[in-house]
Amino acid sequence: MQYAIVTGASRGLGEAIARQYILQNINVIAVSRRGNQKLESLAKEQGREFHHISCDLSDMDDLNEGLHRISEIAFHEDTHYVYLVNNAGVIEPIDTVGDLEPETVQKHMQVNVTAPILMINRCIKEANDRDIDLGIINITSGAAEKTIHGWSTYSSSKAAINRFTETLALEQEEKGHTIFAYSPGVMDTDMQGEIRSSSEDSFANVDKFRKLKEEGELRSPDEVASVLMNLLREPKKIENGKVYKLYDLVED
C-alpha cells in the first residue's frame, strides 16, 4: 500500500496535490484544520482510503496528536511507500522589522519550520524502523533566496526549510528515500490574496503582485500540482536535497 500525507490539504495547492494522489490510486492522509468533502468524495469514487486529521500545526499538542495518528494509519506491515508533502504554510507577518508582533512571528515559525521538521522527524523514524521507502517534498518559495521588503520572516522560514532539506538528504543518502524541495512560483491562492491586501508601508512591492492578478499571470494550483507529479514520475532522475523550481520545469 501507498500513502500520501499532505499538510494544508483543505484548499489551494495542498488540495490540488491531494487530488492528484487520489487520482493516481494512492491513499491520502489530509492534515488541516478544516476538512474537504470534495476530496473525501473523490477518494470514495476511486476506491481509495481518505483520512482527514484535524490539526492546528501552530499548536504543539495538536501537532503531537496528529503525528501519533499519522503513524498509526500510514506505517504498518502492508505499507511499502509513503509520501510526505509539507505544504501548509503562512505568509503573515508581512511587515518591517521593528513592527513585528511576537506572537505572529512565533506562530509563523511553528507552522513553516517547526511543524515540517517534526513531521519529517517522525516519518523518518517510522519508515527506517519498518524499512518503508519515503518520498519527502517540502514546499518552499523563491523568497528563500531573495531579500524582499516586509518579508523577513517568510524569507527566513523558507531559507531554513531549504537548508533542512539539504541536510536531511545528506543524512539519509544511504536509505534510498527521495527528498527534495519544490518552489511553485506565484499561484492564484488565498495566500496571494493576503499578500495583495498588504499596505505599501508593510510591503513595498505589493503593486507588483496586484498586477500579476489583474493581468492573469497567476498559475492555478492544479497546474502547479501537475508539474510536481510529473517530476515524481521519474524518481531516479531526482537529485536529493535539491530545490526544484517550477519555472525550470515548464516551458512558457
Automatic annotation (TrEMBL):
Natural source organism: Halobacillus dabanensis
Q: What is its main location?
A: cytoplasm
- Keyword set, alphabetical order: Cytoplasm, NADP, Oxidoreductase
InterPro entries reported for this sequence: Biopterin_syn/organic_redct, NAD(P)-bd_dom_sf, Sc_DH/Rdtase_CS, SDR_fam
What GO CC terms are in its UniProt record?
Answer: cytoplasm
Pfam families from the xrefs?
A: adh_short
Question: SUPFAM superfamilies given for it?
Answer: NAD(P)-binding Rossmann-fold domains
Record GO biological process: tetrahydrobiopterin biosynthetic process
Where in or outside the cell it occurs: the entry states:
Cytoplasm
This protein is called Benzil reductase ((S)-benzoin forming)
Q: Does the keyword section mention Cytoplasm?
A: yes
Output the Gene Ontology terms for molecular function. Answer: sepiapterin reductase (NADP+) activity
| Similarity comment: family membership | Belongs to the short-chain dehydrogenases/reductases (SDR) family.
